[in-house]
Amino acid sequence: MVVFATSLFKKCLYLQTNIQNMKTITLIFSLLVVTSQIWSQDTGNTRTVPFQITLVTPLGTNGTYAENTINKVSINILAGYASGLEGVEFGGLANINRDFVNGAQFAGISNITNGDAKGVQFAGIANLNGGNASIAQFSGIGNVNIGTTSGFQGAGILNYTMGFSTIVQAAGIGNYAEELKGVQIGSVLNLTSENLEGAQICGVANIAEYVEGIQIAGVLNVARNVNGLQLGVINIADTVKSGIPIGVISIVRDGFREFEIGFSEGLNAYAAFKIGVSKFYNIFTVGTQFLSDRFRWGVGYGIGTHLTDRDDFKINLEGISYQINEGSSWTNAYNGLQQIKLTFAGGKNKHARFFGGPTFNMMVSDYINSNGKTGSNFPPYYFFSNTYGNTRLKYWIGFTAGIKIQ
Fold first, then answer.
1. pTM of the model
2. Is residue 28 predicted with pLDDT exceeding 50?
3. CA neighbor of 258 nearest in space, from 142, 378, 353
């Protein structure tokens, strides 16, 4: 009986304590409502309050007048709606403002502003702005601005700006802007549908209409007109006016293309295709050696530039690396010819010119030849020869000549 009475007393005491706590919370909430009403300032159809707290609109200190209230300090336990913000706002799920935001917003899911925004926004999922934004945005998934934007956008997946942006966009997957004056940094895709003044840096691809600046991609850069630098494995442009594409292959519709047929003491006959721009172009070449003890052939890749590029006279500097195959479809050992060429071409016919010039050659070979020694017999002669471990190096100076066709 004593145990039962004691238990009943404890339950009654616990219930009384909870009732007192609820009364305390109700009293505090009522005081907040009254204080908010007293301190509010009417401005036309809207008013400004120094503080508000809301469970979910209209269950808060602003009540049904929330849509016509500008808050200075706003706490939304779940989600709140207001006319605007002049200060700081916290939302467990979402902060929604109809007209504007000037200040800082923190939300578990999303900050949504129909009008202009200035300040900083942090959201677990997304920040959405319907007007102009001068703001720094950070979100787990995406930031979306419809109007003009200046500031910073950082997102785990996507940054999207429909209008003109003077901004830094950094996203785990992609960035989009109609016009951008700033920087786009994305791991998969950066897209600017019109003008880009600044830089696009991406792990996979950059796409822009007009580029005044830099495109850097791990795989692909695409632009219609480029005044700047494209740096990627593949660069594609319609026109490069005063810039330069640097990559494994650069395709420029109005750029430099040339087909070359030539001969030398090493590769007795070879053909090369060159593509890019005159300042920097890619070379794809294949050649054979048939005036020697055995048939050899090689395939190579290189880069080049025009030191002089006049209509009637050109000087080219090129570097090419070949894999030389010894009498078979492919030689598994490394058997590389490294070549630097300085050629001079002249003539009034702009579509076909004869050329000639010296070459510096270095043969780097791990190949075991027919007599069991390390090193290829590809060099017809050599001035110096060194062996480093299982690698043989031979050096010689040669000459090449032929015809260039554009």
1. 0.80
2. no
3. 353
Which sign, positive or negative, has the C-alpha torsion 215, 219, 224, 227?
positive
Q: How confident is the model at residue 394 (pLDDT cuts 50, 70, 90)?
A: very high
The Cα 268–Cα 273 span in angstroms is 17
Pairing of strands 220-231, 234-240: parallel
> Quick one: tokens of 215?
């495109």
Binning pLDDT at 50, 70 and 90, where does residue 202 land? very high
Note the Cα 267 to chain centre separation in Å. Answer: 41
Tokens of 104: 């800082």
Bridge partner residues of 100 (DSSP) = 84, 116
Residue with tokens 């979910």, as numbered in its chain: 56
Q: Which of 209, 157, 202 minimizes the C-alpha distance to 180?
A: 209
CA distance 105 to 94: 10
What confidence category does residue 199 fall into, taking pLDDT thresholds of 50, 70 and 90? very high
User: What is residue 132's DSSP assignment?
Assistant: -
Beta carbons of 144 and 125 less than 8 angstroms apart = no
Using the predicted structure, report yes or no on whether residue 36 has a pLDDT greater than 80.
no
What's the rounded Cα separation, in Å, for the pair 84 and 67? Answer: 8
**CA–CA separation, 281 and 289 (whole Å):** 26
Helix H or strand E segment including 128: strand 126-129
Look-up of token digits 């850097």:
216
Helix (H, G, I), strand (E, B) or coil at 31: helix
